[in-house]
Amino acid sequence: MSLPRHIAIIMDGNGRWAKRRLLPRTAGHRAGLKRMISLTDHIFARGIECCTLFALSAENLSRPEEELNALYGLFRVYFTEQIPVLRERGITLRVIGELSLLPADVASLIGENTAKTAGGEKGTLTVAIGYGARQDIVSACNRAVREGREVTPETFASMLSTGGMPELDLLIRTGKEKRVSNFLLYEAAYAELYFSEKLFPDFTARDLDRAIGEFEKRERRFGRIDAGR
Ligand code: FPP
Question: Which is the closest atom of ligand 1 to the Cα of 17?
Answer without folding.
Answer: 23
